[in-house]
């Protein structure tokens, strides 16, 4: 069995500590200004409950495609590029 003297143990602990302190870090720090982080970068207009068909057409134009009504009450889907009504 190999035993280390107290001096060897202290030397090993000191070397490990120095490696931890002086070894270059691999982390990258990213700083984002608070105002930029909190303000929306893209604003989109979306539909709201109760809009009429005419209001949707006036606001967004014609849908890319439309699915037929299903169920009771009959509900249809209008598929736009970014969302579905």
What does this structure look like?
A two-stranded antiparallel ribbon has the order 1-2. The protein is built from 3 helices and 2 strands, in the order H-H-H-E-E. It is 35% helix and 13% strand. With 85 residues, the chain is an alpha+beta fold. A hairpin with a 4-residue loop joins strand 1 and strand 2. It is rod-shaped. The longest helix is centred in the first third of the chain and has 17 residues. The chain has a domain of 43 residues.
Instruction: Provide the residue-averaged pLDDT.
Output: 80
Low-confidence stretches: none
Main sheet: strands, sense, barrel: 2 strands, antiparallel
Strand content: 5-15%
Q: What would you call the structural class?
A: alpha+beta
What is the element string, with H for helices and E for strands?
Answer: HHHEE
> What integer value in Å does the Rg equal?
32 Å
C-alpha geometry = rod-shaped
**What's the total number of strands?**
2
What's the tally of helices? 3
End-to-end Cα distance, whole Å, is: 76 Å
Helix content: 25-40%
Instruction: List the strand order in the largest sheet.
Output: 1-2
Describe the structure in brief.
With 85 residues, the chain is an alpha+beta fold. The protein contains 3 helices and 2 strands, in the order αααββ. The chain has a two-stranded antiparallel ribbon.
Task: Give keywords.
85 residues; alpha+beta; two-stranded antiparallel ribbon; 3 helices; 2 strands; 35% helix; 13% strand
């Amino acid at each position: 069995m190999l035993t280390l003297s107290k001096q060897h143990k202290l030397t090993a602990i000191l070397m490990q500590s120095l490696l931890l302190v002086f070894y270059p870090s691999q982390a990258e720090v990213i700083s984002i200004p608070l105002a930029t982080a909190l303000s929306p970068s893209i604003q989109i207009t979306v539909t709201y409950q109760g809009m009429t068909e005419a209001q949707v057409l006036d606001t967004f134009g014609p849908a890319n495609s439309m699915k037929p009504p299903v169920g009771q009450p009959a509900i249809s889907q209008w598929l736009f590029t970014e969302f579905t009504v």
